[in-house]
Amino acid sequence: MIPLTRINGNPVVINTDLVTSIEEQPDTVLVLINGDRIMVKESPEEIIDRLVEFRRKIHCPDYHPPVHEQVKES
């Protein structure tokens, strides 16, 4: 479960197993397996980071993925 914020500012906690896709149109929309759509304030990148972190904690709490820095072009 990950905490997110609905467009109206209300908090919502999402079951990560129910998320099938994340759309950006321009608001971020979570699409769930039952077809429900939830608009949230967080960006797709933020949601993906939270999903990955949540699953990491559940499946392998001692694993810490490497951090990659983006190289800025000059």
Count up the domains: 1
Tell me the structural class.
alpha+beta
Uncertain spans: none
Number of helices: 1
**Major beta sheet, strand line-up:** 3-4-5
What does the overall shape look like? Answer: globular
Global Rg: 14 Å
Q: β content, as a range?
A: 25-35%
For the record, give the distance between the C-alpha atoms at the N and C termini, rounded to a whole number: 40 Å
Report the count of strand segments. 5
Order of helices and strands: EEEEEH
- Which sheet architecture does the biggest sheet show? 3 strands, antiparallel
Question: Which bin fits the share of residues in helices?
Answer: 10-25%
Mean pLDDT: 88
Q: How would you characterize this protein structure?
A:
- This protein is an alpha+beta fold and 74 residues long.
- The protein has one domain (2-59).
- The chain is 22% helix and 31% strand.
- It is built from 1 helix and 5 strands; from the N terminus they run βββββα.
- It has one helix at residues 44-59, and strands at 2-5, 11-14, 19-24, 28-32, 37-40.
- The strands form 2 sheets. The protein has a 3-stranded antiparallel β-sheet with strand order 3-4-5, with no helix packed on it.
- A hairpin with a 5-residue loop joins strand 1 (2-5) and strand 2.
- The mean pLDDT is 88.
What are the salient characteristics of this protein?
1 helix; 74 residues; 3-stranded antiparallel sheet; alpha+beta
Please write out the topology.
Layout: E1 2-5, E2 11-14, E3 19-24, E4 28-32, E5 37-40, H1 44-59
Antiparallel strand pairs: 1-2, 3-4, 4-5
In short:
This protein has 74 residues and is an alpha+beta fold. The protein has one domain (2-59).
